[in-house]
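Deliverable D2.4 — example input (structure tokens):
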């Protein structure tokens, strides 16, 4: 058994690394425990296809206050995306093509109808107490789509407009999509740019490595945790291999879908336990594809369940080839490491495309993620998630899955890690007094 730490942080994604840095730099003794053999969590910057690629969470934006502050702190900028000119989309069983502007002309009126009441329900997005969302948070995305009574063609167009963010429309809560839109003044196209357009210059690894390098926390990789027990005086952390680590406070920064493997004492509130049992329904894979030649930059959209690739776009050039990133909502529908299978899927849209090589990260079956970015089921955005943002005795939770404004993204992970650090530091200071 180790000496008593001020804080044990569990999970070294952006939330955990941020919390560990802030607390250790404030002079507290911190141990950071990570189940993987690397930091980064559901962000992963690795060498593949002859270049370095983001195989997990990627995109940020200057309007995201927490991540932007970190980027400026370390002198890191954003990479300029390759402009896209060509669009392919599947609707009512047929593949269509045109310019990206033409596709937006078709989808924007449909998205406007879907999101028309976003600001009504979320007039002040940083304060759910003033939100009129109790009823809307009982509905699924599919409930809203069905209520619009669209033709099969227009229904597919609307789902395309929400691209990979709608992976399971009858499990995903409507409130979160409306909330995301409300954050961007009710403009869904603005949210799509914020959520999925601007990569970090040098990759996400560059930022999280900079945060980690400034931290004074003791980092232990390959150390999964199975239990946290708060006896009212300190917390006992038990690892999978039987280590027992004592800490005055604990920050748990794990994905929601990993929390059913963690025993927590005293028991969490019932709404939180129910959310953990229900799980995050987003189960995607991300596939990078090296395509032969510098082909015309394109985007592809297909409704969930009607094609193995739900969205793809040409991201950048490399050594005379084009690098394309694809997202699949059903990992069983396409083996992303099968070059010929990926080529066949892409040729449904771009007939003469030639795939040189692929690399795939299956987040649904990743043993330390078991899912992708967070999308709350009905009721959890406004009920269970806010409960998890409050201290549970000496146990504090962090991570993009329970974030407020930044729910589901890197900004939300940093937001909650910083907030947990403030809560813990305040509690430690109070104990000294």
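Example output (designed residues):
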């Amino acid at each position: 058994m180790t000496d008593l730490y001020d804080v044990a942080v569990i999970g070294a994604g952006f939330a955990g690394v941020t919390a560990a840095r802030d607390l250790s730099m404030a002079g507290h003794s911190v141990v950071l425990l990570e189940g993987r053999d690397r930091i980064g969590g559901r962000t992963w910057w690795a060498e593949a296809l002859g270049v370095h690629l983001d195989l997990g969470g990627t995109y940020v934006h200057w309007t995201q206050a927490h991540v932007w502050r970190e980027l400026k702190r370390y002198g890191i900028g954003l990479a300029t995306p390759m402009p896209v000119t060509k669009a392919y989309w599947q609707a009512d069983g047929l593949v269509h093509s045109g310019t990206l502007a033409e596709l937006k002309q078709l989808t924007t009126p449909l998205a406007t109808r879907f999101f028309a009441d976003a600001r009504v329900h979320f007039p002040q997005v940083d304060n759910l107490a003033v939100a009129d969302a109790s009823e809307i948070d009982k509905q699924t995305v599919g409930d809203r789509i069905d209520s619009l009574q669209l033709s099969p063609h227009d229904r597919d167009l609307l789902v395309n407009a929400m691209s990979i963010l709608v992976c399971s429309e009858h499990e995903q809560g409507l409130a979160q999509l409306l909330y995301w839109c409300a954050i961007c003044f009710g403009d869904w196209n603005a949210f799509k740019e914020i959520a999925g357009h601007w990569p970090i210059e040098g990759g996400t690894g560059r930022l999280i490595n900079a945060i980690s390098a400034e931290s004074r926390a003791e980092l232990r990789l390959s150390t999964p945790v199975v239990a946290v027990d708060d006896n009212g005086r300190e917390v006992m952390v038990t690892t999978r291999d039987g280590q027992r680590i004592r800490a005055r406070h604990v920050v748990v920064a794990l994905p929601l879908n990993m929390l059913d493997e963690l025993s927590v004492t005293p028991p969490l509130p019932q709404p939180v336990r129910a959310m953990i049992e229900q799980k995050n329904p987003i189960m995607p894979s991300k596939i990078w594809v090296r395509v032969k030649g510098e082909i015309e930059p394109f985007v592809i959209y297909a409704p969930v369940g009607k094609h193995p690739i739900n969205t793809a776009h040409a991201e950048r050039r490399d050594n005379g080839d084009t690098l394309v990133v694809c997202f699949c909502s059903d990992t069983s529908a396409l083996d992303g490491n099968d070059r010929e299978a990926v080529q066949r899927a892409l040729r449904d849209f771009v007939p003469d495309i030639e795939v040189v090589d692929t690399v795939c990260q299956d987040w649904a079956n990743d043993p330390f993620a078991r899912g992708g970015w967070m999308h709350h089921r009905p009721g959890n955005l406004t009920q269970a998630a806010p409960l998890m943002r409050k201290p549970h005795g000496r146990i504090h939770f962090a991570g993009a899955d329970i974030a407020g404004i930044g729910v589901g993204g890197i900004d939300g992970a940093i937001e909650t890690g910083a907030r947990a650090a403030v809560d813990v530091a305040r509690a430690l200071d109070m104990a000294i007094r």
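Residues 214 and 381 are 33 Å apart (CA to CA).
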